[in-house]
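Possible race condition, two jobs.
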Amino acid sequence: LSILLSLLVPADTTRSPDCGGILTPSGLRYLAEVSKPHAESVLRKDLMVSPAPAPSPAPQSSRNEIISVKVDKFSLTLIPDTGMRLSIEVDLGITSAPSTTKDMRLSILAELHVEMNPEGNLELVTSDCKPTLEEVQSTEETDRSAPQLSSSKSSGSDVDKQINIEKICLEVSKLLLFPNERLMSLAAPFPITPRCQVQYLPLAAPMYSEQGIIISLQTTFQVSGTVIPLPVSPVPFSMPEPARSSPAHLILAFSEHFYTSLFSALEQSGALNVSLLSSLTTATLAERITQMGSLFQEDLPVVLQVVTRSSPHVVLEEDKAILELFLTAQIGAGSSLFQSFLSVNVDVTARLHLSVVDTRMIISVAAVEDIELSLATSDVGPILAALLEELFLPTIREEVPAQINEVLRQGVFLPHIASFTYTDVNITIHKDYVLIPCNLQLEART
């Protein structure tokens, strides 16, 4: 694979990915590590429960009872082009009488993969499961730290029947900490503002390569519960193959089109329209522009009502993310009854700062690099145009970024499954895409 994610692009261009992620072999090892105590808890409940009485009860002395369950090994490995292999070894302590105890080892080898169900959700599926149960023989001459397995299987024994190996295989995916309920949470809608939501929809079942499990996602945005149409990316999203030795658990990638779509959604929701109170009043403005004195009989605050006149655009370059805003400012007087007396076009070029907190990407305007003001009407002379720029440019330069940062202060949720957060995040901005290698961390339960 020299290009990732683009391999998953369907023929329909309206269903192109604009972001995605790779769960690396390191990430799978971490999921296995945090799933081990969970698996032990589940197996204890399943195996140590008292069996139902048989029609002809056996004597109490011959009845097998599992008195201890300990998961010794729990691993999750990648099988390129196929899926994942789950390997579990469980040590069981079994007693058939108060004075008789024997050690057994339950081994489970299962093949897992993720499918997309008809509802469009990802679903963890078991394609094969092979359980075995063997007795561990320890003698006086054998080191207890290295018990030997007997060559004879206990298949068909009373212990086998009590353990109900078939049931364990049917529910083997529940031994992991990301069952299907958590996978479904990947496609849940997340709030950005009270009116705007983001949703990451899987485009296809994941692919499996040596680099990890590759998931391709398309972002949709909702305003007041309705999915809004966004411009289609001119080119399908793809990203370079990551380093195979990457220690990160997960590598997320977001296209330039993702960020443009985000700000377009905010623009369509009205979140970028702001009302700015300048430091001027009609009286102080009349000192510089004499015509103002005849327009307003009383001294009123001067207000700028700023609205977007076309969709914003984000440009990604090496180590730099640039936001381009195309605004129109209606300059007027009065806060309750607004009276506009001039219209000015404002083009803002601002640098964005990106960071990650838990599972949210914090996007903020770090610095305004350029602002251009142009009068929307041509019947005003250049002297007045220069004067308006002198009077209102500082307000626009300071307040527009502050208002945008206020809109985005809660951050934008990243694709994630429930109960996991991101740590050790390293954001790298490249031309056309942003790469976010990070580690997974299981949230502490309260």
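Job #2 (started ~2 s after job #1):
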Amino acid sequence: LGSVKQEDISCCVVTRVIGHYPHRKQLLIDCGFNGLTKQGMGQLPTGCCAFRGHPNLKLSASTQEIGFVESVEGQHLDLNQYPIGSLLYILPWHSCATAALYPLYHVVEGDKVVEEWVPTRGW
């Protein structure tokens, strides 16, 4: 939304590369709109999110459980850089809407989970 710098975004969704489509120049990830809202789709050159550390990636489409990732317009996508099973970290367009989709949050420092938070539900 532009309310904070990218390095200050405290919410991210971890996803895994589950497929390569060389003929379509796409990666397949195991995160669709059930794990990341479509809010903001088309508002960024990278779709409705940004991939932490990978400014060349764009979420081009998603189904309920699957996301389709391509390179940002005009950039080459080297599928060898994203082996099957590798992790990607998604910074959502709207972290509040995305966080509401999850029953548990992992608080991470470096590569270590230091706490688990259970969000309050209901009004």
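The longest helix spans residues 95-99.
Logs attached separately.
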